[in-house]
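Task: sequence design from structure.
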């Protein structure tokens, strides 16, 4: 799974400060343990904002094993849809 983090970093490094021009994005991360539940808010959101993204919805962290049936996702989707 660390490979995906590295790939995401390589992708995000292609954008300079402000370059996304307020494109709506959603800081959402999947992981294997709730020990990293704050990662989208404290690591991904700041990077997205720095490169110019708008992140209007709350960040979301889901377990890999539960994302297809997550109650958290079901609660989050109506909030996020207001910004699409």
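Answer:
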């Amino acid at each position: 799974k660390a490979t995906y983090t590295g790939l995401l970093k390589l992708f995000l490094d292609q954008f300079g400060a402000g370059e996304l021009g307020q494109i709506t994005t959603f800081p959402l991360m999947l992981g294997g343990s709730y020990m990293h539940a704050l990662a989208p808010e404290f690591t991904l959101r700041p990077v997205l904002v720095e490169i110019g993204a708008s992140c209007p919805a709350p960040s979301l962290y889901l377990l890999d094993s539960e994302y297809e049936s997550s109650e958290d996702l079901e609660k989050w989707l109506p909030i996020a849809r207001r910004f699409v």
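The first helix runs from residue 2 to 12.
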